[in-house]
Amino acid sequence: MNSKRFVDSGQATVEFALTLPFLFLFSLCVVQVGSVANDQLVLNHAAQTAARAISLADVTLESAQQVALNSVQSEINLREVKIEVDLDQDAANVKLLYDRTVKVPVIGKLIGDLSLRASATTPRELTNAEN
Asked: What pLDDT was estimated at residue 64?
């Protein structure tokens, strides 16, 4: 009976060693998904803030782009965010585009780069409204 106990003594260690790389890869996936989700939330917030800043200002399309750029840069620290502003009499629309590189060694090869997008539209509140 003692000899059978020694035969099975390393089975759990071998199973753990076989599953450890998959557990590690899964934990890296969870961290990467959380990081991308955080970037998307930040991008959405920046788009809303920029649209709100433009809607409150009495600006032209050229200066609206600068207002959006300043607003986005003060809200987030993501680099190389592309900003598109559409401005008409009734609404200010801001679209943000951010190309996110996945830098986790194994997952980055599987997923590749991601394009995150956010947009927000806010009604304009002009102070010199004509009656």
From this structure: 87
